[in-house]
UniProtKB/TrEMBL annotation:
GO terms, biological process: L-tryptophan biosynthetic process
Cellular component aspect of the GO annotation: cytosol
Keyword Amino-acid biosynthesis attributed: yes
Keywords: Amino-acid biosynthesis, Aromatic amino acid biosynthesis, Glycosyltransferase, Transferase
Organism: Acaryochloris marina (strain MBIC 11017)
SUPFAM superfamilies xref list: Nucleoside phosphorylase/phosphoribosyltransferase catalytic domain, Nucleoside phosphorylase/phosphoribosyltransferase N-terminal domain
Keyword Glycosyltransferase carried by entry: yes
Domain Glycosyl transferase family 3 N-terminal intervals: 7-68
Pfam families: Glycos_trans_3N, Glycos_transf_3
Sample GO molecular function, one term: anthranilate phosphoribosyltransferase activity
Ranges for domain Glycosyl transferase family: 103-336
Name of the molecule in the record: Glycosyl transferase family protein
Alphabetical list of InterPro entries matching this protein: Anthranilate_Pribosyl_Tfrase, Glycosyl_Trfase_fam3, Glycosyl_Trfase_fam3_N_dom, Glycosyl_Trfase_fam3_N_dom_sf, Nuc_phospho_transferase
């Protein structure tokens, strides 16, 4: 099998002028051989760095996603009045700005819009704070859960989390290679497009560089994914910035114009300002708890800006202003925190 992989490596690793792109089938085969470690460690490392230098194509990303679909987990569909929102963020976490996605997810779930997240532990190359650590700090432990249990929580309370080491050990096995390579491989872009869910869904994926967005759009089109949103978010996440304009791409099959560009400014809604820095997980968790208790703190504007936007974006609120007000109400009246308490109790019983 390593001899077959050698041919893939020769194509992507022949240099800037002579390297060739993989076909979709070849990309799927290459990633499956790496995930199952049928390729040798030397080949895997060489491929990851060579593919980064070459730069992936949308076709190759589609093949990588085919491999994730073939070998990875997927939750069955749940009964819901709206598509499940799948938030995809960089697995190597955040190291400069404070993430607010857990509270955004709780507000959406409390409003009847189910949310599915996925990720692992601290990961190269950034080794930033991962979402699973924040959930644990909020009293929700997504580790050591079966897919059936995650499906139960998603069905009952509209919240779920696919924990990579537990649910997709083959992908977790690539972490050591990523650490030794020392650079974020194109595999990280695949994770931004992965949606481990079998029902109707709305994928929301963050990105940093415009060429990445173009590759993402091509890959999703090839895969038949027609309901997605791209966010030029903080550190490539789905969190909207407040100190600059938020740039979004909207792809919805039911709209007259399938692809639309949306640009928003938090300053237009009196929520602009400098981004809240991430200093430590302890400090961040104190801020998240304060927000969930409805207390005024420096993180509150970022939470309202994000949660309010998403309430409007997914159709729960009729306008962005209504979404901002609804987000504030769900925090001050304790509804979002109640959802957190219910999920805590349910997982504890399991």
């Amino acid at each position: 099998m390593s001899q077959i992989f050698r041919e893939f490596l020769k194509k992507v690793g022949s240099g800037r002028h002579t390297s060739k792109d993989l076909s979709r089938v070849e990309a799927q085969s290459a990633l499956e051989m790496m995930l199952q470690q049928e390729a040798t460690p030397a080949q895997i490392g060489a491929f990851l760095i060579a593919h980064r230098i070459k730069r992936p194509t949308g076709i190759e990303l589609a093949g990588f996603l085919d491999a994730y679909e073939h070998l990875g987990p997927a939750l069955p569909a749940v009964s819901a009045s709206s598509p499940v929102i799948v938030f995809s963020v960089p697995y190597d976490g955040r190291s400069r700005t404070a993430p607010v996605l857990p509270v955004t997810a709780l507000i959406l779930a409390a409003s009847g819009c189910p949310v599915l997240l996925h990720g692992g532990d601290r990961m190269p190359t950034k080794y930033g704070v991962p979402l699973v650590d924040l959930w644990q700090g909020l009293g929700v432990d997504w580790s050591h859960r079966s897919l059936a249990q995650i499906h139960q929580v998603l069905s009952k309370y509209g919240l779920g989390f696919i924990y990579l080491p537990e649910q997709f050990p083959l992908a977790q096995g690539m972490v050591e290679f990523r650490d030794q390579v020392g650079k974020r491989p194109p595999l990280a872009t695949t994770e931004l497009l992965w949606q481990p869910y079998l029902g109707e869904h709305h994928l929301i994926a963050g990105f940093v560089h415009p060429p990445t967005e173009n590759m993402m759009r091509e890959a999703l089109a090839l895969r038949g994914t027609d309901h997605f949103t791209t966010i030029k978010g903080l550190e490539g996440s789905c969190d909207l910035p407040r100190d600059r304009k938020a740039i979004l791409g909207l792809n919805h099959p039911s709209s007259e114009q399938t692809w639309q560009r949306l640009i928003l400014s938090a300053r237009d809604y009196d929520l602009g300002g400098p981004e809240i820095p991430y200093t430590s997980t302890k400090t961040l968790l104190e801020q998240l708890h304060a927000v969930l208790n409805g207390q005024t703190c420096e993180l509150m504007p970022a939470v309202l800006w994000n949660a309010g936007f998403y309430l409007w974006h997914v159709g729960i609120s009729s306008s962005l202003n209504d979404g901002l007000q609804a987000a504030e109400n769900l925090l001050t009246n304790g509804t979002a925190k109640q959802t957190l308490t219910q999920v805590q109790a349910f997982l504890a019983d399991l």
